[in-house]
Specification:
Blueprint: E1 16-19, E2 54-58, H1 79-82, E3 90-94, H2 97-102, E4 111-116, E5 119-124, E6 130-135, H3 149-160, H4 181-186, E7 195-199, E8 202-206, H5 214-217, H6 226-229, H7 242-245, E9 253-259, E10 263-268, E11 281-285, H8 290-298, E12 304-307, H9 312-316, E13 321-336, H10 347-355, H11 359-365, E14 371-373, H12 394-403, E15 413-418, H13 423-440, E16 443-448, H14 452-461, E17 467-473, H15 480-485, H16 506-517, H17 521-538, E18 542-554, E19 557-562, E20 579-580
Parallel strand pairs: 2-11, 2-12, 15-16, 15-17
Antiparallel strand pairs: 1-19, 3-4, 5-6, 6-8, 7-8, 9-10, 10-11, 12-18, 13-17, 13-18, 14-18, 19-20
C-alpha cells in the first residue's frame, strides 16, 4: 500500500473547531478511525446539551459557491456543505484537533490518515494496476434503498459522459487513466471497461499504468444514486428538477427544502451509518457576501460564517463568538488570457508581471500578515526552500518586457474579474492593479462578480475573461496539479480549460504521470518538486500566496469541525456529532 499520510502544503489547512464554550462546555469531536468510529479525545469529558435543535450557517465567501449551486458532482468550494448530504469512497482524519483549536499553527497540516468513508477497505493487485475497494455494508440512501457498487460505477460513468451538463465532475481526473475511459468518452463503448462491479459491495478499478494515488485522489468525488438519476437524460442533468426537490445521498442529513436565493434546509437522517445525528436540522442561509452574513451573525440570526482577516480583531472581542483560523490550502492566482492577448503567451511577459507585484507588501498591509508567498501551486515544507518565490523587482520586470519588445500599455484597460465578493479581496485586487500600472504600464480594473455561475461561464465556457483573480486548491496530494497542468486535463471539455488555458509541457505531463505510478513517497515528492521548478519558470498561472482564512462560530455550537478552505479536500467533519445549545 502507498503512504496514507497526506502530502501537506505550506499554510496547510488546519482543522479548527468550536469547543462548545457555552455554560455546558463540551469536547471537540475527535477524528474517526478507519471504521468511522470516533475514538476517545484527549480533553476531559464535559456535559453535552441534549440532542436536537437547528444549526443555521452561512456557507459564503471564497470557500463556497452559494445557496443556489445545488449539484454535488461539481461542488467546487462547497464540499463542506455537500458532505452533510453525500459520502465518498475515502476521506481523511485530521491532526490533533483539540490542540490545534487551542494553539493554531498555520504550517501544521490538517490531514492525517486516509481512511474509509463509503469504502471500508481497499487493496492493490500484484502488478499495481488494479485497486479493489470493499464497500461498507448496511449503508442506505436517504430513501432506504441500499448503497451498492453499481452506484459507484454509475457515478464514474456519469462524470465521463460527454452529454452530462453537470460535467465535469471536478475531481474525476483520478479515474482518467482507467482502462476504457477514452473509448467511453468517445462514444465507442457503452461502459468503462476498467470499472468492474465484482458484487454488491466490491468494485475494482483497473488502470492502464499503476496509479499509486488513486485512493487519495478519489476521496474528493461524491457518490450519487443510480436508481434516482439513471432515467434523467444526461444532457439535462444539471438543470433537472430532481436537485431542487428530492436529491438524496448517504450522508448524515437529508434534503428537505430549497428556496432559491433564500435558504436550503436539511433534516437528520436517522439511519446514517455512523449513527443518528444529534442535530435535528441544518439550515444554509443565503447571503450575497460575507459582510452581510457577518451582520446576521452579530445579530444572533446565524451560528457560523466566514470572515475576512480584517474582521478578526473585532470578532475576537465578541463575547458570544469563537474565531477559528485555518490555513486555506488555496493559492490565489492571476490568469491572463493568452488566447485573446498574444502578449500574455510570451513567458517573459508573464515573468515580468510576477516581478511587478509586491507580494510581501500586500501580505503585510492588506492581509495583515495572514498569508505566505508561494513559488508555484505547490508551496510545500518538504520542498525545503529549494524553489523560491519570485522577489519584487520592478527593474527586472521592465528589463524582461524590453527583451521581448512588449509594451503592455498598448492593451488599454483590461477587466480583472473574480468570484470573490468580500471587501478585502477588492482591496487586494486594487493593490495588484496599482503595482501593474506603476511597474509595467498594464491597466486593469477589478470586477467582483457575485454570481458564481456567471463567472464560470465567462472564464471557462466562453473563454472571455481578460484577467482573472481566482483560487487554486492544493488538495491532499500533489496529484491536484494534474488537474491544472496536464495537457489532457482541459476542463470543461471543449472549453477554455481548467489547466491554464490548455497549458501544455510534455516534461510536466511526464512528471505528473510518473508521480501517479511512483509508490515511494520520497521519490514522489521529488517529482512534484520538479513540477514546481518548471511551472515557476513557465507560469501557466501566476501563483501568488496562500492565505490563512477564518470562520466565526457561536459559543452555542459544540463539536463542530470546519476548515476555512471547504473545497480544499476531503475530510471527516463529524457533522452527526454537532450540537446546539439554546
Amino acid at each position: 500500500m502507498p503512504r496514507t499520510k497526506a502530502w501537506r502544503p505550506i499554510l496547510a489547512m488546519s482543522m479548527v473547531l468550536a469547543l462548545l464554550v457555552a455554560a455546558c462546555g463540551g469536547a471537540a469531536s475527535p477524528a474517526p478511525t478507519a471504521t468511522g468510529t470516533a475514538p476517545t479525545g484527549s480533553a476531559a469529558p464535559t456535559p453535552e446539551p441534549a440532542s436536537g435543535g437547528t444549526f443555521i450557517g452561512a456557507w459564503v465567501g471564497p470557500c463556497c459557491n452559494g445557496n443556489d449551486w445545488i449539484t454535488p458532482l461539481d461542488p467546487g468550494g462547497d464540499a463542506h456543505w455537500f458532505n452533510k448530504i453525500y459520502g465518498r469512497l475515502t476521506t481523511f482524519t485530521v491532526f490533533d484537533p483539540i490542540k490545534q483549536a487551542a494553539d493554531f499553527d498555520a504550517n501544521a497540516g490538517v490531514y492525517g490518515e486516509l481512511t474509509g468513508d463509503l469504502a471500508e477497505s481497499w487493496e492493490i493487485s500484484a502488478d499495481q494496476k488494479t485497486w479493489t475497494f470493499k464497500l461498507r455494508e448496511g449503508v442506505t440512501w436517504h430513501d432506504g434503498e441500499p448503497f451498492t457498487a453499481n452506484d459507484v460505477k454509475f457515478t464514474i460513468e456519469l462524470c465521463f459522459n460527454p452529454k452530462n451538463t453537470m460535467a465535469p465532475c471536478h475531481y474525476v481526473t483520478a479515474v482518467a487513466g482507467v482502462e476504457g475511459v477514452e473509448e467511453y468518452k468517445a462514444g465507442t463503448a457503452t461502459e468503462i471497461s476498467g470499472v468492474k462491479v465484482i458484487d454488491a459491495n466490491t468494485i475494482a478499478f483497473t488502470f492502464i499504468d499503476p496509479n499509486s494515488l488513486f485512493p487519495t485522489s478519489i476521496s474528493e468525488l461524491f457518490i450519487v444514486p443510480e436508481h434516482k438519476l439513471k432515467d434523467i437524460p444526461p444532457e439535462g442533468m444539471k438543470e433537472a428538477e430532481y436537485w431542487k426537490t428530492s436529491q438524496i445521498g448517504t450522508g448524515p442529513f437529508k434534503w428537505d427544502k430549497y428556496t432559491p436565493g433564500v435558504s436550503t434546509e436539511l433534516v437528520a437522517f436517522d439511519n446514517y451509518w455512523r449513527g443518528k445525528p444529534k442535530l435535528d436540522r441544518i439550515i444554509r442561509r443565503h447571503f450575497e457576501d460575507p459582510a452581510s452574513a457577518l451582520l446576521a451573525f452579530d445579530a444572533g440570526e446565524i451560528h457560523m460564517t466566514y470572515i475576512t482577516a480584517d474582521e478578526v480583531a473585532r470578532e475576537r472581542e465578541n463575547p458570544d463568538a469563537v474565531v477559528l483560523p485555518g490555513g486555506s490550502g488555496v493559492d490565489n492566482a492571476l490568469q491572463f488570457n493568452a488566447a485573446k492577448y498574444p502578449e500574455f503567451a510570451i513567458k517573459e511577459v508573464r515573468q515580468a508581471l510576477m516581478y511587478a507585484i509586491d507580494r510581501q507588501s500586500i501580505i503585510d498591509n492588506v492581509y495583515g500578515g495572514a498569508a505566505a508567498a508561494v513559488p508555484c501551486l505547490y508551496g510545500l515544507p518538504n520542498l525545503k526552500g529549494s524553489v523560491e518565490p519570485y522577489p519584487y523587482d520592478p527593474a527586472k520586470a521592465k528589463e524582461l518586457l524590453a527583451s521581448v519588445n512588449v509594451d503592455l500599455s498598448t492593451l488599454g484597460e483590461l477587466q480583472m474579474d473574480t468570484y470573490y465578493t468580500d471587501p478585502l479581496s477588492l482591496n487586494v485586487m486594487t493593490a495588484i492593479a496599482q503595482n501593474l500600472k506603476d511597474n509595467v504600464g498594464l491597466t486593469v480594473k477589478p470586477l467582483q462578480m457575485s454570481d458564481g455561475a456567471a463567472w464560470q461561464k465567462l472564464y471557462y465556457t466562453d473563454g472571455a475573461s481578460q484577467v482573472s483573480f481566482w483560487g487554486a486548491a492544493n488538495g491532499p496530494t500533489g496529484d491536484r496539479g494534474y488537474n491544472y497542468f496536464h495537457s489532457s486535463a482541459a476542463w470543461p471539455a471543449g472549453s477554455n480549460g481548467w489547466n491554464g488555458r490548455f497549458y501544455s509541457n510534455p516534461e510536466v505531463d511526464k512528471l505528473l504521470s510518473d508521480a501517479r505510478t511512483e509508490f515511494d513517497p520520497a521519490k514522489q515528492d521529488a517529482l512534484y518538486q520538479k513540477v514546481c521548478e518548471i511551472t515557476r519558470d513557465d507560469l501557466p498561472a501566476l501563483y501568488l500566496w496562500q492565505t490563512v482564512r477564518f470562520h466565526v462560530v457561536s459559543k452555542k455550537v459544540g463539536n463542530i469541525i470546519v476548515i476555512p478552505a471547504a473545497g480544499g479536500g476531503s475530510y471527516y467533519d463529524a457533522a452527526e456529532l454537532w450540537t446546539i445549545s439554546e
